[in-house]
Amino acid sequence: MKYATLPIILKDIKILLIGGGKVALQKAKVLVRNKIDFKCISNDYIAEFKAISVEKITKYFTIEDINSYSVVIDATGSDDVMKQILEHKKCNNFLYNCVDVPDVCDFFFAALIEHGALKVAVSSAGASPTLAQSVRDKIARMLPRGLEELTNQLQTKRDIGLIDIKEAKKQTSKMLGKVTLVGCGTGDVDLLTIKAYKSIQNADVVFIDHLISKEIIEIIPTNTMKISVGKKKGAHSVKQETINEMLIEYASKGFDIARLKAGDPYIFGRGAEEAQALMEQNIRVDVIPGISSAIAGPLSAGIAPTARGYATNLSIVSAHLAGDSINTQWIDLLKMKNHTTIVLMGLSRADEIVQAALEAGADGSLPTAIISNASRPNQKRIITTLEQLPYAAKDAPKPGIIVFGDVVNLHKILPQYECETETFNEKTA
């Protein structure tokens, strides 16, 4: 470290800014934003200075101009001006900053983040302003909106003697906390969005669903806190209400949380419930979309859900309702011509689906596909019919989706991920 420095905050200071060029303009803008009392002296000003609301004295600088100022900023770039000021300092007390000449400076400007009275200063002690600015910008992206308002509220309370440190800390931590619902898709780490990857990498705490793949879990930094909240069918390890409470608890402590959810958070993923619970507690929430198995599954199996000539409509439904009851309100979709129906969470209800479909008058020979572990190395595709679905679903790996419609026949001609393929018909059944 070249200089021994201590960042401090100066209050009610009077500054003289010498110079009227681009460098001086940049310093003037900082001073104006921070409501600092200062004057400018220069024999000439660039046009942009007209917008700066400050007293501008147009004259050549003389050493007498420094009198009565406690801080002098030299943005002239002139060696002669610098020498005059340094000589004057020998007998006079004031703080001097000569832009881009750190060896003669009494202080350095920090890279500032400004939220009203709340200021975050980043300094490299003159070693690299670019580094300080980059770190400043990174921190600024992480800080929430509303800090200025909170600062003003706390100032008002302090002014009337209402100082509650615990409450102030609680309010601040809650504002700084954030939850990102991260759609992790089908489990292929290469299919994560860049934003999802960054969120996982930068989180303080990661909440992990049961269906999150080992590949994605492996990209979580080793020093990141990991909390498993997966819910298996028939063995719910953590209730949804408890998950909501845990997210609120950790976010209220100021943690940056990545909540990893299989597929897309808002497609049968209960992400909306989590987002609503958090927002009701005034906790910041971000949602990152993921590729649902309803979209990636058919694609990886060589099935185009809306291929021209095969299907003009697409429906995505869930066979599962709250309380482990079955949803059959969508069954009539199976009778529609040129229609593709994709069913999530339906493998374990295959018998009931087929019974309801045949009773409703659906064609038992309707092309049907089961795609398990879509896009993963152990992906499996089973081609069958509506009537034969219960036999095909019996030993199909989970998780899996069911695709109904003529588009299933496209598996014979379209590209697909390498996977195990099985055809289920009356003979094999």
Q: Can you describe this structure?
A:
28% of the residues lie in helices and 23% in strands. The protein has 429 residues and is an alpha/beta fold. It has three domains: 14-142, NAD(P)-binding Rossmann-like Domain (Rossmann fold, 3-Layer(aba) Sandwich), CATH 3.40.50.720; 179-291, Tetrapyrrole methylase, N-terminal domain (Cobalt-precorrin-4 Transmethylase, domain 1, 3-Layer(aba) Sandwich), CATH 3.40.1010; 294-423, 2-Layer Sandwich (Methyltransferase, Cobalt-precorrin-4 Transmethylase, Domain 2), CATH 3.30.950.10. The strands form six sheets. Strands 15-18-21-19-20-22 form a six-stranded mixed sheet. The model has no long low-confidence stretch (mean pLDDT 91).
From the N-terminal CA to the C-terminal CA, the straight-line distance is 77 Å
Strand content: 15-25%
On the 0-100 scale, what is the average pLDDT?
Answer: 91
The CATH architecture term of the largest domain is 2-Layer Sandwich
Strand order of the largest sheet: 15-18-21-19-20-22
The number of helical runs is 12
pLDDT under 50 segments (min length 5)? none
Broad CATH class of the largest domain:
Alpha Beta
- Which class best fits the helix and strand makeup? alpha/beta
CATH topology of the largest domain: Methyltransferase, Cobalt-precorrin-4 Transmethylase, Domain 2
Number of domains: 3
Silhouette: elongated
* Biggest β-sheet strands, sense, barrel: 6 strands, mixed
| Helical content band | 25-40%
Radius of gyration: 32 Å
Tell me how many strands there are. 22
What is the H level of CATH, i.e. the homologous superfamily of the largest domain?
A: Tetrapyrrole methylase, C-terminal domain
